[in-house]
Design a protein that fits this description.
- With 123 residues, the chain is an all-alpha fold.
- The protein has one domain.
- 77% of the residues lie in helices and 0% in strands.
- It has five helices and no strands.
- Helix 1 packs antiparallel against helix 5 and helix 2 crosses helix 4.
- The longest helix has 30 residues.
Length: 123
Amino acid sequence: MIESPVLAILYVLAQAVERIVELVSEFKIWGDPDSTDNGIKHQRAIALWFVASMLGIVACWLFSVNFVLMLTQSSHHPILAIIISGIIVGSGSKPVHDVIATIEKYAVVKNNEALKSTSDLKH
């Protein structure tokens, strides 16, 4: 089972990246935030997603956060795993929270199955 502090690190990194992107999004270089043009809004969303992903990748690399390694206990392609981790962190705190909740539910189910099989062996 994944340790809670490790999941907390993922969540904190996602929060930090989200706050930085909020600050950066105010710059006009990404297009006018108040624009009503759908093309500009779309380009702005893509640019900010790219910035968030890059910040997530850099944060995961700097803090040695490898989400794939946490899940599988082995990573044959560490650079790809850091990139995947960074994209997950860059997706924001809500998706990261959803991933953490899913992992925790899976761990509870697996734990319950293990307890049931242990109790079945005793009978």
